[in-house]
Amino acid sequence: MSRPATRAATGPIAAAGRSLPPDLARGMMLLIIAVVHAYLFAFPFLPGTGHTADLGAADTVTSSLVTLFAESRGYPMFAALFGYGLVMVARRQDATNGARAARRLLRRRGGWLIAFGFLHVVLLYAGDILTAYGILALAFAGAPRWTPRRILTTAALLGGAGALLYSAGMLGMTALAGSAGIPAPDSLPADVAGRATAWPIMAVLLALTSIAPVLIGVWAAQQRIMEQPEQHRALLRRTAAIGIPVAVLGGVPQVLIITGAIADPGTWATSAFFVLHLFTGYAGGFGYAALIALVAARLVRRPAGPGRIATALAACGQWSMTCYLLQSVAWFVLFYAYTLDLTRFLNVTAAVLVGVAVWLATVVVADLGHRAGRRGPAEALLRRLTYGAPAGAPPVTAGR
Q1: 296 pLDDT above the threshold of 50
Q2: Is residue 400 domain-resident?
Q3: Where would I find the DUF418 domain in this sequence (predicted)?
């Protein structure tokens, strides 16, 4: 095989060759992330303090729904899909250049994700996940070739320990803020300094809590579950039927605290409910991914194809990093104390609706870009930095 053919085979996958379920799941996952981030700007509940706010009837309902169905449920799905993507990248590289080249490529990609994450934090938003995924790509670059038993065992041991360490770290950090919460920086320099200072701590904590879902995503990709949902229908149905209700039930104690239904639960109860909420969120994230895969399988079987809406959502999934960063641009402009500071005028419900509107705007942007045959700018830059720019590479083409 000639060198040019090898470079073409190991480069990024063209849009027309992508599978619908993973992209559709990423697009829907970004809705959950947008809702949670907007919600937290309006209602920054601190799990280590029991700090709550006085909520009206509408905000009580909104806060309950976000806690039960979104908070700590979106990031596990995001992490699992990231792990799934690691295998798809490694499989393509491994087929031509071998396992060592695949590990080098994943580590190079992880290093650039860390750089992207640092710039994301400094320029836009403290709630970065890219750095954590970069760390995990460096640490688990060889995981795509592990045996399923090793992956699941590692996920159970390291993932469980990591989630507990994350919980302890978050509870400890937020407890230091006191019952009044953390005051928002009122100037750009103060905000940048605070975000940059907290960046390495938060990156490690988020990496710890993401170990299990990333490795579960690696295992799922080895089985090609999202690419071939028809062959795994029973597993997907069980995962959705069990995972989503477990997440909802596990979030009930957290709802009782944040809405004030339980008055002064105490530090230990508050901490235990937070940990329960976090762990059951894994089940919810996996359940959502399974449900979306089942829906995508039905859409693909339709004679007319997935349809306009599903195609737009999948385009958002293909542009997932770009859309994620665009959300942070929106938070910077809309919610910060030294920009528009809309949280002064919005209640929790209105802020969540703003989050939904921001997500819809990114779907439109991604769909227009996809129809124009373009990759997301962030994805294109990451691919160029990871793979280089092979001479004579064919242009990206949009596909259904």
Answers
A1: yes
A2: no
A3: 221-388
